[in-house]
Structure formats: C-alpha cells, structure tokens
Amino acid sequence: MSEINPDQINAERLAGLRRSAVRSPADPALGDGSLNDDPGKQAPLVLNNRSFHDITEIVAGYSEKAPGFWWFHALGFAATVASIAQIMILYLIITGVGVWGLNNQVDWAWDITNFVFWIGIGHAGTLISAILCLLKQQWRTAVNRAAEAMTIFAVICAGIFPGIHVGRVWFAWMLFPIPNYNYIWPNFRSPLLWDVFAVSTYATVSLLFWYMGMIPDFATFRDRAHLRLRQNKSRFVELRLPVPLPLPTIRLPWRGDLIRAYIFGFLSLGWRMSGRHWYRYEKAYLILAGISTPLVLSVHSIVSFDFATSVVPGWHTTIFPPYFVAGAVFGGFAMVLLLMIPLRALLPNFADLLTLRHLENMAKILLVTGMMVGFAYSMEFFIAWYSGSQFESDAFLYNRATPIWLNPRGAPYWWAYYAMITCNVISPQIFWFKKMRRSPMAIWIVGFFVTIGMWFERFVIIVTSIHRAFLPGEWGMFFPTPVDILTFVGSCGIFLTLFLLFVRFFPIFPISEIKNIIPGASPHDYHDDHHDHDEAHAAEGAH
Amino acid sequence: MASVQYQTESGAKVFGMLAEFANPHTLSEGAKKVRDAGYRKWDTHAPFPVHEMEESMGIVGKAIAPMMFVIGCAAICGAGGGYLMQYLINVDYSIIVQGKPTYQAWEPFIPVTFELGILFTAFGSLLSMLAFNGLPRHHHPLFNSDNFLRCTDDAFFISIEAADGKFDPDQTRRLLEEAGATNVELVEDPEGNA
Prior knowledge:
Shape of chain A: globular
Order of helices and strands of chain A: HHHHHHHEEHHHHHHHHHHHH
Strand order of the largest sheet of chain B: 2-3-1-4
Number of strands of chain A: 2
Distance between the termini of chain B: 14 Å
Number of strands of chain B: 4
Number of domains of chain A: 1
Oligomer: heterodimer
CATH topology of the largest domain in chain B: Alpha-Beta Plaits
Structural class of chain A: mainly alpha
Structural class of chain B: alpha+beta
C-alpha cells in the first residue's frame, strides 16, 4: 500500500504531532476529500482530521463568538416578516375568517395547505434522527440537530393554522377531551380529532428527542463558561449596534459567561458525562428513536386521513397515507438543504462537519423520494381510470391535468398542477448526474424548487379537489386575499426567526455524537490493544 | 456500608479520587482494572459514550433493567389509559357515527390509543433515564475540580468515591496509576453530603 496507514495518522495525531494538516488531495474527483467512490473505504465523516477538542471549539464557537453581521441582518428581516404574520393573525381574530378568500365551496384553502406544508417539513427532522439512528447511518450527525430544531419550528408554524382557521379561536379548547358547556365530549371517531392528538404528540415527542440529544452538549457549553469564569477570562456583556456607526458601546454589569453558566447549567441538568449515565442515556435514546419512527409515519398518515376518509373525488383514496409520508420526507429534506447549504458557506469550519458526501447522500434521498411522489401522482391517475368512477376520472383527467384553454371541461388550476409536477418530479431528476449531486448550488436550487412544489402539491390536493365537487351548480373558484398571502409569508418569517436564534445560541451539531464517530473514538482504534485479541488469537491457534 | 471518613489537611471531607486517562482505550482498560479490583462506587467520565464501556465497567444489563421496566409501564399506561378515556367518554356521551355501536366499535379508537402510548413512552424514557441517573442535580463534588470540567471537551476520567468500602487513599492511587492514569487528584466535598 502506498498510502499512509490510517493508524499511523491516528497515532501521530494523538501524540500531538499532527493536528489538522492532512489537506484534501488535489484530485478534483474527490472534491473536499469526502467523495471517494471506493466502496471498500469509508468516506471521512469529519474532514481535516479534527480532534475531539477541535470539534468542541468549532461547535461551541458558533454560540460563544459574536456572529457576523449577516446574522443580525437576517434576523432583523425574518423578525419583521414574522411580525407581519402576527398582525395578520390579530386582524383575523378581531374580524373573522371572512378576511381570507374562503367561500361556500372552497372552505379549506391556504390555511390547511399551509398546515400540511409545515407539518410535512417538520417530518424530516425526526426522520433523520430516528430512522437514520436505527439504521446506524453515521452521516446523520452532520444534520440531525439542525433538522430536529427545524422540526420543532415547523410544527410551531403548522400549529398556528388549524388553531386560527376554526374562526372563533376562543373555542379552540373544545378540541381537547374536555366536556363543553352542554357536557358534550369531542367525537373520537373523527380524523380531525385524531389529528389533534397526532400533531400534539408529535410536537411533544420531537421536543423531548431534541432536548435529550442536547443535554450533553449543554453540559459542554456550561463547563466551558465555568472554566472561563474560574480562570477569570470572562468578559462583561457589551451591547453593540449591528451597524457600523460611531456610537459608544454600552457595557452591562454582568459577565456573559455567568449568564451562560446559569442557563446551560439549568438546561444540562447536572450532566457529568458518567459512564453509568451514558449507558442508560444510549438505551433511552434508542427507545425514543424506536418509537419516533412509527410516530413519524403515523402522524402524516393521520393528517392524510383528514382527506382520505371523506368522499370528495381527489381525496377519497387509499394511497394517501404513504403518499403523504413520502412527500413529507421529500419536502423536509429539501428544507434541511435549503437551510444548511447557506450556513455551510457562512459559518467557519462548517464544511468540515457537513461534507460534500453528506450533501450527496441527501441529494440521493431527494431523488428517491421525488420519484416516490411521482409514482404516487401517476398511481392516482391509474386508479381514477381503473375505478371506473366518473367523478374520480373527471377529478384527475380533466380537473387537474387538462388546462382549461385546451378543453372547456379542463382545470382552471392547471398551472398549480404543472408547477407541482415540474418542481417535484422533474427538477430532482438532475441528480442522476454525479456532478449535480455534488454541487451545493445545484442542490440548493433543487431544494428551493421542491419546497415550492410541495406547497403546490397540498394546494392541488385541497383546493382543486373541492372547488369542483359533484354538482356543477356548486362549482366555485378560490382567490387568496392579501391576508391569506401575508399570513403564509409571515409564517415563513416565524420559522426563520426561530431557526436563526437556534443557530446563534444552541449547539447546531451534536458535539458528543460527532466525537463518537471520528477516528480514535473507539477503544478498538488503538492497536496496542493486545489483551482483547489474545483469546481470539488463541482460539484460531495463531499464537 | 460503614466506610471510613477521609479528610484533607484543611479539614474538608474527601469525595473521592479522580484520575485522568489519555484516550478511550486507556480509559476502557483502566475501567476493567478498577472493575476487577472490586470497587462499587466508581464511575468513568468521557465526552461521548465510549464503545462497550458498559462491558468494561461490568454494568451490562444491571443498570438498565429497572429503567426498561418503568418505560414499559409508561407505554402500557399511556395506551391503556388512552383507550379507557375514549371508551368512558363514549359511555358518558355516545356519538353515533355510521350507525355503529357506540363503544363496542373499537377500531376508530386505535389512532388516539397509539399516539398516547407513544407520548407516555417518550416521557417515560426521558424522565426515567434522568431519575435512575440521579438527575437533575444542582451540583456534584466532582465539579469542584477544574480539571474535571474538561471531560465535556476532550478528557477522560475515572472517579472512585471515598464512600466505597475498598477506598484507601494510597492503594486506590496506586491502582489508578498502574492502570495508566496520568493525573490523579483527591476531590474535596466542602458540603460534606456526598
């Protein structure tokens, strides 16, 4: 073998002789060094031979050092947009749902579209964390924390819409199993009530899963703050303006690390990295991952029951549960990529932890899930024809796929259907090309299209199905009002605001999990390990 | 267990002994030696869950069996309670859907039963993990050591408590040094309530 033995690199690094110097090879086919195509060699999960300490420094640095000006600008923009949503929601509550474009025929439109869109995005986090954890996919560590955070924030955005679309929000408590004024209980045979339980369980379990993963990382943050306080290296909090103006900075009478030590000390619950604790922690985490997997699948299945159990043509199909779950994974991964690729460019050393190989893996998942939803779209047409139901075939052949300018029976919303097909089925096909799978820019653009396409998918399912139900006499159209549009735009602002705050203050990467997958983490990486192998050798007769 | 109380020269009670190890491998080997020496109140500390550490510490199964039992109970309570809630609500106020029997038609109750089972299992996993670990706790004597705080970064430790029946300042120190520890120190417990 002409290469340096990896054990030797490892030994040198542990002896302090080699820190970060192994640069990626000049071969452009290897990209940043993570793209080898040799199935016999595992691609490095962390680049540049980072040590345990380097990983702590990199991840804790995002939270401890002042962020770049881009962060203040992005937060200011996102918070402004978020406040638009709040104003629109207030306007809706004091005026009534008439401020939206709903009418007698189309009584679910952007509200439920946005709900299903956000809850779908919220599925990728738990998918990445739970399913990839059960499958022992170590590359999940690059994105799982951010994806879990994204899940929580997307579910928050999703929770807004069913809450406000009931009209009289002060009666929203009737959704819970509490008898109302007339001692009437909710109807447990309604999928809408199942939805309440599914979404609230999903939000709670995702929060617990996210928090449990962060406990050791909070302990890392806490101890770093404590050490700086004890060594008297800590500085006072200074309030600086996010714009370069010649104004004096205000110094507050607290040390920043004292605040950090309190907050992270509280959140880390006294975690002390004990071997006995880790043992229970790993088992409990595995159980959480094990129960989250069927949970993820159940939640979007139940969301799809909201439609599938009705008799409206276009909704009444048995393919909905798997179709919704595949779509949720697809849209969620697209959103993860949409958020992580800019961060990879903006934050220092981010690319060492989120390598091109990770992006390529996620691009492949986009391709696979994109074809799964494409299959579901085509199956809907097959079943519409095969069922022999005139209403079904009319809903798909005419009301979706035939533009109204080709046939007067055709779809006025044909553009929504073709936007969906273009974004969701056609755009991921560029990932058949290796070059595209390995280009962050191409992946970002496809992620953007997929996010738009997934919104249109829900719009197509909801609005085009109900705007032309059984009787032509009750056919109608839906047009969004500015309040509809601004509420949705504002919900994106809420999502982005929460995500930016997460990026600034919390551990974006699972520090302890990344340390566990780098070379040198397993006791078996050290080859002076004679004791363990003595028995094995004796059994083989090699000694 | 009647154990000897140790004190430092300043009069503070001794919590135990803390020994630093260079890497996961020496930590694992050190843990095997401490385990074989028959100590009970001791622990390893590493920035991440070291592979097969439970075997090196000799705690396989013992540490998690009660936790698994509690999580199982939580799951049964959640699912059973969820079903019972829907059943009783339908006894109290029957809503007839599709002309089916009010509470004998059990199939539509399954989704909520499943979700509540998952919800309780999730709370059971996190809370029982914390409870069996003796967490949350406000402070721990080990945090008095500045060196120990590095274990959340890149350092590996074994701690042996003075409350252990086999603890002896000289012998324990010798054992740890023979096991490859680089930096052995006594940890004080000023509050004396270990």
